[in-house]
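Bug #2210: token dump truncated for Apea-like HEPN domain-containing protein?
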Amino acid sequence: MSLKNNLIKLVDALFEANSPGFDWGSEKTFPDFLTTDNGYQIHFSSSAREYLRKLAQILCENRLDGGVKIELPSYIQVVRKVVANMLSEGLFDGSQWHEDRQAIKELKKRIDSQLDKIAKEHTHYFPAWTFHMERSGPIEVGPVKIMTREDWLDEVDFSENAKRRFGLESGGGIDWKASVKEALNDPRSDVSLPDSTDYIYDAIKVCHTVVGVTISGYEAVYSERFAKLACKAALDSISLIIGYQDAFLQQSLYGERLPPIRTYTLLETNGYLHLPGSALSKRVVGIDGDAVLKELSDFPISTQDIGRILEGVINPDSSPWPKLALRWTTALNWLAEACREESDQTAIAKLGTSLDVLACGGKHSGIADMVANFTGIGKKSVVNKSTGQTLSSLIRVIYEEGRSQILHGTNIDRLKSLKQERADAYNVARISLLEAAHGLMTYEGPDDDKAFRTMTAQVEQQE
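Reproduced locally. Full output below:
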């Protein structure tokens, strides 16, 4: 259906839904309405919402490049507001508007005006668990900043209007930041938090770290999703450098799918209950922040190098290889999620997918080419002397007997321990990601999806 016909159908559905005789009992949903700028309430029926979605989808798909980046659900809300305002102003009265494009022109003009009002830059912050390496000072991984919550409080502030509304003016004798810090340092104290700042306390009280990044050119909801991916990648890249799998459980954004700190077991034998058993989970940190800082400073790949990759994802126009940067961070995400998995089978499937993403397909042979290229080990070279396993055979086991058989349902035995296979897959994926990041720093070839398969050879040739 065309843009014009969808708009006509939408307006007809709105007139019907806002008429006195409309049967709202047939809707079987909660009332859906908004208040227009001139004070009218416009109700949306289920059919009106469907025509609105189709209309917004057509408009969104035909937007010109260069405007604020916005996803369809948020774009629908913009169109919804504009259509409701136009309806309340009488611009859809009668049927004369069906015959010309003036209504559509006005609709597009108002939508563009609303989009122009959307803030183009947002700085997003996420509470996080880390190794506390930021206690010595904020750590920057390209555009991402990792800091203690105390440093974060020193860095941010409310607007003057907000301070007046919340009663936080500097002349009022209230230091809201000091009050929040005091409450954080002693949660059992009876610190009286100024109005509204208890929301700040609640947001950051669980985690000792805040991770932030500024995103430009995106609508707020879309921007937040993008920022979360960037901040996750920054933490995961540090865990990648640290090296052991449990690091990815010990460093994470708040709200991620993680096991509890302590677990309990309840057991009965011969009809009698035992006392509960308990154990600390792998989330308990076994390395301190100073050791992490030393490891980061000594490692061949620096946080600045990782930062260049993240910059390529966030600001692709500034990077010589934005597609490869996005591919690298996506592969990193698969590896990180694999390390957070309790199940060996699921972890191996995700680790195999990480390698698959990095190599851009090619099945086990494409991955073997990439790993051989990164490591300098021939595909037929033995990598396990006790079994005589070659590099090519190892990759085949990871990809075909691991990833493919698990995902395709050939291997469904979840009780079988695959601890060694998981460790092998992790080591191969970790080395590949680190070598890929190292290779990107001197890479001058095309931004091609399959470049990681041959990048090291090209880099050596350029040198």
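Output looks complete on our side. The chain is about 50% helix and 10% strand. Marking as cannot-reproduce; reopen if the truncation happens again.
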